[in-house]
Amino acid sequence: MYLKTLHLRHFRNYQEQQVEFTAPKTILVGNNAQGKSNLLEAVELLATLRSHRTFRDRDLVQEAEELAQISASLKRETGISTLNLILRRNGRRTVNLNGENLRRQMDFLGILNAVQFSSLDLELVRGGPEGRRHWLDTLLIQLEPIYAHILQQYHQVLRQRNAFLKRNIETSQGAPVQTEELAIWDVQLATAGTRVIRRRERAIQRLAPIAKKWHASISGSKEILQIKYSPNVPLEQNHSEKVQQAFLEKLQQRTIAELHQGTTLVGPHRDEIELTINQTPARQYGSQGQQRTLVLALKLAELQLIEEVVGEPPLLLLDDVLAELDPSRQNQLLDTIQDRFQTIITTTHLGAFDSQWLNSSQILYVKTGKISIEKVGVGRQKLEGIFQE
Ligand SMILES: Nc1ncnc2c1ncn2[C@@H]1O[C@H](COP(=O)(O)OP(=O)(O)OP(=O)(O)O)[C@@H](O)[C@H]1O
Known about the structure:
Blueprint: E1 2-11, E2 14-20, E3 25-29, H1 36-48, H2 57-60, E4 67-76, E5 79-88, E6 93-97, E7 100-101, E8 114-118, H3 123-126, H4 129-143, H5 146-172, H6 179-218, E9 225-230, H7 240-261, E10 272-277, E11 280-281, H8 288-310, E12 315-319, H9 327-337, E13 343-347, H10 355-359, E14 361-367, E15 370-376, H11 380-387
Parallel strand pairs: 3-13, 3-14, 8-12, 12-13
Antiparallel strand pairs: 1-2, 1-4, 4-5, 5-6, 6-7, 9-10, 10-11, 14-15
Helix pairs in contact: 4-5, 5-6, 5-7, 6-7, 6-8
The protein binds adenosine-5'-triphosphate.
InterPro entries: DNA-binding_RecF, DNA-binding_RecF_CS, P-loop_NTPase, RecF/RecN/SMC_N, RecF_2
Keywords: ATP-binding, Cytoplasm, DNA damage, DNA repair, DNA replication, DNA-binding, Nucleotide-binding, SOS response
GO molecular function: ATP binding; single-stranded DNA binding
């Protein structure tokens, strides 16, 4: 797939900006805090309807404005699509595909696919389980857009069940709880949660061997990466009824604790994705360099898996990560990308790129929310022929 144009209006620090992508690789150059990451974030939003930097739409809308708009034209094997996303300060969104407003946000997903790689991704290794769940969920949304709906349903039931447990603490004052109402929430939570658990398990099953292969390749076969899904509800078989049964059993075991604490202690909101290298938890393992190898392997695996499932190579968004990789890891990444994946890269200086890369890339300069074409690689004209209509 190929992103031809992007238009930003009142998005972050962009007042009004049209960008045309004229080569398979685009390098955005600029000093810190000029708007490079903001542009990648806009593409990420079109792909996943999520930003890895914020949960609040009001952060995305330009100061003093009420709404922001991101529009794009995307070329896929099936034809050209136009995507349009309106974000409002109050969180209400409008999604529009090919000029038609969509009733369900889910139908907007899966049109544009992208893998984002930024220095924040190191938190996947170093940080807590929440970041890893978020990463896996974002990947799943792209593999199976219906997952966005499944996840939303689960979180809705979870919120309602938590509210019930909290209310119970406040109102019961030692009196027996309304077990009938709790039983209804239990069934709803187990039903919605089972759908989440089964899909997470399936995704890891597919991703783990690909990531393992990449990791071995980058580390010169010295390290073995294992990715293991460790669900909060025990999962012996990926079978709907069995998982649901195990879910309900665990809920029963934890009821007293849940009533006491006023919160739900069982379910996929407590899942973990274990990353181990040579059988040692990656978090405790070795240097930053090794952790970077792991994240790079995860990202390359994401690219490959999305390509396999979707049938077209996704976009790759590299947010200031190239400079953080040593030359051999850089080469591994650049060799993989070649011209196969349309790639948008941000950087503060062009020094990290070799001349071949610079020649075959479109270079855009970003300054205070404005983009200018001051310099274009020599190879641009040749590539334009291939990539433009
Ligand atoms: N809602 C908003 N309204 C106006 N400006 C915003 C908004 N959100 C962020 N900004 C501005 O965007 C800029 C940050 O841009 P961005 O995160 O893209 O930086 P960058 O160019 O990628 O730099 P770095 O190399 O530091 O990551 C800051 O100047 C910030 O004040």
